[in-house]
Amino acid sequence: MRMRRKKNLDERLAKCGDMIFRMDRDSKDFSDKSNKELIVPEKMFGRKAPLILEIGCGKGQFACELAKREGEFNIIGVEKSSNVIVQAAEKALEQDIRNVRFARGNAEYLDCFIPEHSVECIYLNFSCPFPKNTYAAHRLTHVRFLELYKKLLRNGGAIFQKTDNMHFFEFSLEQFSEAGYKLKNISLDLHNSDFEGNIVTEYEKMFSDMGKPIYRLEAYLGD
Question: How many domains are there within the chain?
Answer without folding.
Answer: 2
